[in-house]
Amino acid sequence: MIRVLLTYILPLALPTAVYITWMYYLRHRSKARGNELPEIKSTGIFVSILVGVVLMFAGLTYIAMNSGAPPGDGGYEAPRLENGKIIEPKFR
Fold first, then answer.
1. CA distances for 67 relative to 42, 48, 60, angstroms
2. Do residues 19 and 48 make contact, with C-beta atoms less than 8 angstroms apart?
3. How far is the CA of 73 from the CAs of 68, 70, 91, in angstroms?
4. Tell me, what's the pLDDT at 87?
5. Which residues contact residue 55 at a Cβ distance below 8 angstroms, ignoring those fewer than 6 apart?
6. Is 7:63 a contact under the CB 8 Å cutoff?
7. Dist. CA 50–CA 67, nearest whole Å
8. Do residues 44 and 23 touch, judged by C-beta distance below 8 A?
9. Domain assignments of the chain as residue spans, ordered by start
10. Among the listed residues 52, 50, 92, the one whose alpha carbon sits nearest the alpha carbon of residue 72
11. Are 53 and 10 a contacting pair, CB within 8 Å?
């Protein structure tokens, strides 16, 4: 579950949360100064989601390149029948 959180949810949600927090700060500051309130625009949300997707793919690429067994090092043993018993498949 933590892997799903770190590789999918956090990279997508973090840029959007930063954008919304920044807009809240700008609106609060403008309200205190008596200026016109800035709008939350769909362009900003789109860009933050796009940045999240790029972060997610970068994280997944990093994990794929730097974890697991080296190519050709692992092996798979198919299920087989020995002495009337089924031996389950396994990875070496």
1. 37, 28, 11
2. yes
3. 10, 6, 11
4. 92
5. 11, 12, 14, 15
6. yes
7. 26
8. yes
9. 2-91
10. 92
11. no
Shortest CA distance to 13 belongs to which of 39, 51, 43? 51
Residue 92: pLDDT band (50, 70, 90) is confident
pTM: 0.64
More confident residue, 6 or 14: 14
Tens digit of pLDDT for each residue in 13-66? 999 899 999 999 998 999 888 888 888 788 888 999 999 999 999 988 998 888
The span from the CA of 70 to the CA of 36, in Å, is 58
